[in-house]
């Protein structure tokens, strides 16, 4: 569970966004609003990536434990952006393996099998050895999702990850993404300008000015 308790985002000590919310396991909270309202900055605060001139007050909790003072790499928060941001010098499988916790599998064979199972879950069987620059935009988006899930996150943040996909593909990838997150009971925060994204997410919607 993700709890945002009286969270206020500041820019140069001036409040720009304030909210309280609870996101249960398998639920998606959608945050909508105009550019510059602080939506992506809120995700950075949750992920522990906030930098000056921004700051945050209030409590950010995962499973009832405050994480405000926890380093970003220890928060177990996954984040997906508009771009897939895959490592082009690595294969698909190597990209996914990079995200996996070091102690998640006993040996390389078990890790390889786990990678293939993740790929099969989004209908990408047999591409573990492919170079990422040979994949279509939709395939890259699915690999990005799998890499995020492979890190075993407690919370996932989505920063308009569907906005660069064409309309037909956007609907398909969006459905895949939400179904995978809900199946794994991961609380998710989605930032978007698209009402269709919010409808597909199916959870609470917060609109900020």
TrEMBL record:
List, for all copies, the residue spans of the domain called ABC transporter: 2-209
- Quote the PANTHER family the UniProt record gives: SPERMIDINE/PUTRESCINE IMPORT ATP-BINDING PROTEIN POTA, SPERMIDINE_PUTRESCINE IMPORT ATP-BINDING PROTEIN POTA
Keywords assigned: ATP-binding, Nucleotide-binding, Transport
Q: Which organism is it from?
A: Alteromonas portus
SMART domains linked to this entry: AAA
Instruction: Give any Pfam family that matches.
Output: ABC_tran
Q: Tell me, what is one Gene Ontology molecular-function annotation carried by this entry?
A: ATP hydrolysis activity
Protein's recorded name: ATP-binding cassette domain-containing protein
- Alphabetical list of InterPro entries matching this protein: AAA+_ATPase, ABC_SmlMolc_Importer, ABC_transporter-like_ATP-bd, ABC_transporter-like_CS, P-loop_NTPase
Q: Which domain of life is it from?
A: Bacteria
Database matches in Gene3D superfamilies: P-loop containing nucleotide triphosphate hydrolases (3.40.50.300)
